[in-house]
Write a structure and sequence with these properties.
- This protein is an alpha+beta fold.
- It has two domains: about 90 residues, Nucleic acid-binding proteins (OB fold (Dihydrolipoamide Acetyltransferase, E2P)); about 280 residues, Bira Bifunctional Protein, Domain 2 (BirA Bifunctional Protein, domain 2, 2-Layer Sandwich), CATH 3.30.930.
- Helices cover about 30% and strands about 25% of the residues.
- Strand 14 and strand 15 form a beta hairpin.
- Helix 4 packs across helix 6 and helix 4 crosses helix 7.
- The chain is elongated, with a radius of gyration of 27 Å.
- Bound molecules: 4-amino-1,4-dioxobutan-2-aminium adenosine-5'-monophosphate and magnesium ion.
- The site of magnesium ion (MG) has 3 residues, from strand 15.
Length: about 450
């Protein structure tokens, strides 16, 4: 039986538990083993009568060892747990050399644990984080399915640069020591695997729009790749993104969905993952649960980018120091976003109508000729957690913007077909899954909410 189920079971029966030893302590007569199998943050206590147990076998019950225990589930007299197992039979499934075991008792730093990321799921903290990650993925699917959205699988290998930012990982089978050349001396991609230049996707959105303009409401949920050299606690080179895309939604409908979606996910975590949240709250961040409840119960503040800039400029005039300068037209840094959320409004913020020059080509152009119908959702501790927009549905305007930006139309003809044939108003957004998890777990570094982080110069395991 799983430890989680054992802990909820009434005492009185013989049970079999399997798991990894967290600790062993005791005295001359009795040993107490804390056993965990990953099903819950909580351990089950195993009580061993030393007088009737082989000492050599018990010596092998060390931290990290894998054991199976058969015994009676009894009411526990010790505090901290309702039941415990009175061991009758212990089997060592896998020994664990206590000297070489990478997870030692002394409080290990997150930096160190990243170097042993293959073992860190055995710690309480990463067990909690990974269970939460799994639960949130489930909650996301449940949310969209309950609303009738279609889960669309968009390709990971693509020939288009959705965000137009150019920070893509190239995918090739060409021999890098012997690259075929075309007549002009450039690389002959017709010899490459796909017969053209391809990359790992930075977003499933463009294909998502194909889905939305046929199926109505879709979402994607998959890995996304960005070769940006950003060594920050909020950037990964490989991260997961959820991208809903909806026909007939304007930016207001889009914002309402984003707010409802994220609140539902936080509520789901509070209702279904309380043990893990409580552990993280008590261990690292005493305001975590309050912060989560706060988000569920507050209305997000909606304002324009221009209004946001005015607030930030006023803060600077009043003596607030930012590392990066602010003025109309700049891309906001996380310090600016967090100032608006944490200092100024004290609640999540949705910023709209950004300058078109700092946003992607597909966003719906406003009448002022300067701004686009973008919406970024900004969160405490994180900054940008969601980026989205209403899409430019007008073929002529979109076409002109593609030209203006000097983008290659050849790789976008299929996308333009959505506007050529039965174009419709539509909107969507992207939620960074790991940014959501940073918020929900209270972890400080995005490398600690994904099992195997990929960042510049780091692709271990
Ligand atoms: O704002 P972004 O770049 O928007 C898009 O990709 C759109 N195509 C989304 C859409 O409208 N369908 O990225 C969306 C979100 C960000 O708000 C952030 O949460 C996350 O993805 N994100 C990253 N997360 C971790 N590491 C990175 N390098 C990230 N880049 C973006
Ligand atoms: Mg963005």
């Amino acid at each position: 039986m799983k430890v989680k189920d054992l802990l909820a079971k009434a005492p009185g029966e013989e049970v079999l538990a399997k798991g990894w030893v967290r600790t062993k302590r005791g005295n001359k007569e009795i040993a107490f083993i804390a056993l965990n199998d990953g099903s819950t943050i909580n351990n089950i206590q195993i009580v061993v009568d030393k007088t009737s147990t082989d000492a050599e076998l018990l010596a092998k019950v060390t931290t990290g060892a894998c054991i199976a225990v058969r015994g009676n589930l009894v009411e526990s007299i010790g505090s901290g747990q309702a039941v415990e197992i009175q061991a009758k039979e212990i089997e060592i499934l896998g020994e664990c050399d206590p000297v070489r075991y990478p997870l030692q008792k002394k409080d290990t730093t997150f930096e160190y644990l990243r170097t042993v990321a293959h073992m860190r799921p055995r710690t309480n903290t990463f067990g909690a984080v990974l269970r939460l990650r799994s639960q949130m993925a489930f909650a996301i699917h449940e949310y969209f399915h309950s609303k009738g959205f279609v889960y669309l699988h968009t390709p990971l290998i693509t020939a288009a640069d959705a965000e137009g930012a150019g920070n893509m990982f190239q995918v090739t089978t060409l021999d890098l020591l012997n690259i075929p050349k075309d007549k002009k001396g450039g690389i002959d991609y017709s010899k490459d695997f796909f017969g053209k230049r391809t990359s790992l996707t930075v977003s499933g959105q463009l294909e998502g729009e194909l889905g939305a303009t046929a199926l109505g409401e879709i979402y994607t949920f998959g890995p996304t790749f960005r070769a940006e050299n950003s060594n920050t606690p909020r950037h990964l080179a490989e991260f997961w993104m959820i991208e809903p895309e909806m026909a007939f939604y304007d930016i207001k409908n889009n914002m309402a969905l984003a707010e409802d979606f994220i609140k539902s996910l936080v509520r789901y975590a509070l209702e279904n993952c309380y043990d893990d949240l409580k552990f993280l709250n008590d261990r690292y961040d005493n305001e975590l649960i309050e912060r989560l409840k706060g988000v569920v119960n507050t209305e997000f503040k909606i304002l324009t980018y221009t209004e946001g800039i005015e607030i930030l400029e006023k803060a600077v005039a009043d003596g607030h120091k930012f590392e990066y300068p602010v003025s109309w037209g700049v891309d906001l840094q996380s310090e600016h976003e967090r100032y608006l959320v944490e200092q100024h409004f004290g609640r999540p913020v949705i910023l709209t109508d950004y300058p078109k020059d700092i946003k992607a080509f597909y966003m719906k152009q406003n009448e002022d000729g300067k701004t686009v119908r973008a919406m970024d959702v900004l969160f405490p501790k994180i900054g940008e957690i969601i980026g989205g927009s209403e899409r430019e549905a007008d073929y002529g305007k979109l076409d002109a913007r593609i030209d203006e930006l000097g983008m290659s139309r050849r790789t976008l003809e299929w996308y333009l077909d959505t506007r050529r044939f039965g174009s419709c108003p539509h909107s969507g957004f992207g939620l960074g899954f790991e940014r959501l998890l940073l918020f929900i777990t209270g972890m400080q570094n995005i490398r600690d909410v994904i099992p195997f982080p990929r960042t510049p110069k780091n692709a271990e395991f």
